[in-house]
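Observation: inputs received (chain + zinc ion).
Thought: call the complex predictor directly.
Action: predict_structure
Action Input:
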Amino acid sequence: MLLIECPHCGPRAEIEFRCGGEAHIARPADPSALDDNAWAEFLFYRSSPKGVHAERWNHAHGCQRWFNALRDTMSDRILATYPAGAARPNITTIEAAR
Ligand SMILES: [Zn+2]
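Observation:
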C-alpha cells in the first residue's frame, strides 16, 4: 500500500487522496485582458515533465484539505508534501530527494 504524507494528518493510504493537477498555476490578474489563446493556455495547458512534478492533492477521505506534493512521474514516488500556499521545496532532481 502506498502511503502519502498529508501535511495536516500524517501518513495515510493513497486511496484517501485525489490529485488535483499541476500546482502553482497563478490565476491571471486581469482575465478579461487576455485573448483567447492566452486564456486557453491558462485553462488547459499544463506541463508534463519526466521527473519531478509539483501537483495539488486533496485529502478527500480525511481532513479534506488541499496541499501540494512533489512527485516523480517516472517512479510515481512522492518526494515531498507541503501545505498549500507554502513555497515549493528545493527539490529539482530525484537524487536530491534521496
Ligand atoms: Zn489530511
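Thought: report the result.
Final Answer: The chain is about 10% helix and 35% strand. The mean pLDDT is 93.
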